[in-house]
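Appendix B. Chain record.
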Amino acid sequence: MLASALFWVRIIQQSEDKIRKKVANAEPEDILKEGLKLNKDSTGDIVKYIARIADRKGAEYINILEMKNRLVITDYFVIIGAKNIKLTTALEDEIKFRLKQYDFSPLYTAGLTEGNWILVDYNDFVVHIFSEEFRQYYDLERLWKDSKIIDWK
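Structure tokens predicted for this chain:
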């Protein structure tokens, strides 16, 4: 019985992935990746791609901080603010889906249950997706105010 349920879950997930790929390919993907190299050696371009994805999906706030000289554990923070929890989870899902196409998988994801602060760790960069209230409260830019801000547009 459990094997049968797992089989159908896998079939549904595969179908959803196929549908999403068609939708993603139908969108003007070229605009999102224009001028960027999307591979493991170009982390700076990957974080700009993430910012463009978030912008396209309706994020209200997007900032990229370079952390190379500040932290040993990661090179970039991508900080995204969204107007509600539904959008924070949608942004997380879209970012993971699009990066998966370029063989990027997160090492760790936290905060999906609550959705106010979703953290997605890709090792070389960390994506922070906040509800607007939580973004203003934690204010990571203030904590890391000496970090270089990366232009992503």
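Further analysis of this model is presented in Appendix C.
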